[in-house]
Amino acid sequence: MKVSDILRVKGNTLYTATADEPLARALDLMAEKDIGSLVVMGHGELVGMLTFREVIQVLVKKGGQIGTITVRSAMDDAPMTCTMATELDEVRRMMLERHARYMPVMDQRMLMGVISFYDVAKAVVESQNFENKMLKAYIRDWPQDHPNKAGN
């Protein structure tokens, strides 16, 4: 399974922020849309990611006050990315290695979407459930006179 399979099911709705906008405005959008990340764009290109992890780090550093902090001050300016063709096993490895919960999907320099650890886990579970059903159907339909059938 590839990243493109996840995005095909998930859709391509993207929520973005700019690096120079107030962090408070970005947080309002995240709360309103019930999302855990924003893609930070500049001049039509990906320049960073803002997730609750970065926001919490800023809040702790600033004693719980956001004040006039911009998105740029909080964002990850070197987010790990993948492509539409990246295999799901590779995405899982990358996300686990970097403790990343969100990953932008790129095609050259164009942002195609964002996948979350939840999206990846859901795809894996659905794939395993499908495989389980197929295996159970195969076992159930095993020919009666086949010499390899259990119990023969």
Topology:
Elements: H1 3-10, E1 16-18, H2 23-33, E2 37-42, E3 45-51, H3 52-61, H4 71-74, E4 82-83, H5 88-98, E5 102-107, E6 110-116, H6 117-140
Parallel strand pairs: 1-2, 4-5
Antiparallel strand pairs: 2-3, 5-6
Number of domain units: 1
End-to-end span in angstroms? 36 Å
Query: Mind telling me which CATH architecture this is?
Result: Roll
Largest sheet: spatial strand order: 1-2-3
How many alpha or pi helices?
6
Beta strand %: 15-25%
Walk me through the structure.
It contains six helices and six strands; from the N terminus they run H-E-H-E-E-H-H-E-H-E-E-H. The chain is α/β, with parallel strands linked by helices and 152 residues long. It has a single domain (3-140), classed as CBS-domain, CATH 3.10.580.10. The strands form two sheets. A three-stranded mixed sheet has the order 1-2-3. A three-stranded mixed sheet has the order 4-5-6. A hairpin with a 2-residue loop joins strand 2 (37-42) and strand 3 (45-51). The longest helix has 24 residues, at 117-140. The radius of gyration is 21 Å and the shape is elongated. The model has no long low-confidence stretch (mean pLDDT 88).
Summarize the structure.
The chain contains six helices and six strands. With 152 residues, the chain is an alpha/beta fold.
